[in-house]
Amino acid sequence: MAMSAIEIETLIKLTFPNAEVLITDLAGDGNHYAAEVTDESFRGQNRVQQQRAVYAALKGKMDGANGELHALALTTKVP
């Protein structure tokens, strides 16, 4: 089952309400996205910690072969 860009953004914003979130559908199939998340809470964290926090915000939607979201190219930034 595919996810919409709005669904992805909504999940991220639930955990990072002040974040700037930009979602791009890379293939037009609802399964391959790029996300750029900019949030102050990333300050002092390394890139791996930042990205783990964003993946956790997706609440298992990328987990395993049955995940709703197949691929997410993720970029995190501090403002």
| Mean pLDDT value | 91
Largest sheet: 3 strands, mixed
* Estimated structural class: alpha+beta
Q: How are the strands of the biggest sheet laid out side by side?
A: 1-2-3
The number of distinct helices, counting runs of at least 4 residues, comes to: 2
Which ranges are low-confidence, i.e. pLDDT below 50, for 5 or more consecutive residues? Answer: none
From the N-terminal CA to the C-terminal CA, the straight-line distance is 33 Å
Tell me the CATH superfamily.
BolA-like
Question: How do the helices and strands line up, and which of them pair or pack?
Answer:
Layout lengths: L4 H11 L4 E6 L6 E7 L8 H11 L13 E7 L2
Question: How would you explain this protein's 3D organization?
Answer:
This protein has 79 residues and is of the alpha+beta class. It has one domain (5-77): GMP Synthetase, Chain A, domain 3. It has two helices and three strands; from the N terminus they run αββαβ. Strands 1-2-3 form a three-stranded mixed beta sheet. The radius of gyration is 12 Å and the shape is globular. The mean pLDDT is 91.
Explain briefly what this protein structure is.
The protein has 79 residues and is an alpha+beta fold. It is built from two helices and three strands.
Give the key terms:
79 residues; single chain; alpha+beta; 2 helices
